[in-house]
Amino acid sequence: MPEQQWTAADTEQVRCCVCHEWGEVRYRLDPFAVVQCPTCGLVFVSPRLNPKALQRFYDQPSYFEDGGVYGGQAGGRNPAMLLQRAWTNGRLAAIGRVAPAPGRLLEIGSAYGLFLAAAQRAGYQVNGVELSAAGAQESQRRGFEVFNGQLVDAPATDRNDVVCFWDTLEHVPDPLEFLVEVRRRLVDHGTFALSVPYISSLPAKVLGKRWWTLKPEQHIWHFTPATLQTTAARAGLVVTDVITSPLNPANLTRLDSLVAIGRALPS
C-alpha cells in the first residue's frame, strides 16, 4: 500500500470506550499516539484518524490487494492463501463445536468473501458487513449479501446464530458500541467468534513501538485477554475460550494474535 502522509488535521482525540478516561501516552508515532486507560488498562490510539480520513484509508483497493491474502489470488496456492485456508478451517471447526450448521452466520469485516464462501460450503446461511467499498463490491459480485459500511448502519434483519469478526475489533471506532451491536444481532446464547492482535503478546512486549502490528492508522484499539473479556462483558457477551497458541489451526503461525469464542448472555 502506498505510504500516505497524515497530519494533525486528519486526526481526532478520543477517550477509553469502557471508562471514558483520557489515556496516558505509551508511544508517540506522530501525528498519532498509543495511550493506555489508567482505570481499565485498555490500550488505544489517540489522536487517531478522523472518520473522513479513515474512510479514505479503507477505500483504497490496495488495502486488500497489497496484503496478498484478500487480493486477486483467492484461488491461488501462495503461502498467504494457504494460511488463510488453515485459519478458516480451524475457526469454522471451533465454531462448529458450539454452534454447528445449519444456522444463520454473520461475518463483520467480510472483505472479499473468502470466509463467507467457506462457511456457506459448511452449511451456514451467510451474510456480511464490510467497510471497504472494494471488498463489499467484490463479495456482492460473487453473490453474497454484504452491506458496505459500519455495523451500526447495517439493516437489522433476522438475528444470527453466529456472529464472527476476524481482525476487525481493533479497527472499529468504538469497540463497546460495536459489541453491543453484535449482541443485538445474536439470538440468546448465540455464538460470537473473533480474532484480534493482543498487546500483551511476546512480540508486542519485546518490540514496543516497533511492533509490526501496531499500525496506528488502522489498529486503533489494542486488547489483552483481560481487557477483551471486560469489554465483552459490558456488552452482554461472555468469552468462554481464548486461543493464543500459534500451533492451533485457528491461529496457525500467529505469535501476536488471539482467537476468542463466546456466547451472548440472555437479554
Could you give a short description of this structure?
This protein has 267 residues and is an alpha/beta fold.
Question: Could you characterize the architecture of this molecule?
Answer:
- The protein is an alpha/beta fold.
- It has one domain: Rossmann fold, CATH 3.40.50.
- It has helices at 51-58, 62-65, 79-98, 114-121, 133-141, 175-184, 202-207, 225-234; strands at 11-12, 24-29, 32-36, 43-45, 48-49, 104-108, 125-130, 146-148, 160-166, 186-197, 221-222, 237-243, 257-264.
- The strands form three sheets. A seven-stranded mixed beta sheet has the order 8-7-6-9-10-13-12, sandwiched between helices. The protein has a four-stranded antiparallel beta sheet with strand order 2-3-4-11, with no helix packed on it. A two-stranded antiparallel sheet has the order 1-5.
- Strand 7 (125-130), helix 5 (133-141) and strand 8 form a beta-alpha-beta unit.
- The termini are far apart.
- Residues 66-74 have low confidence and may be disordered.
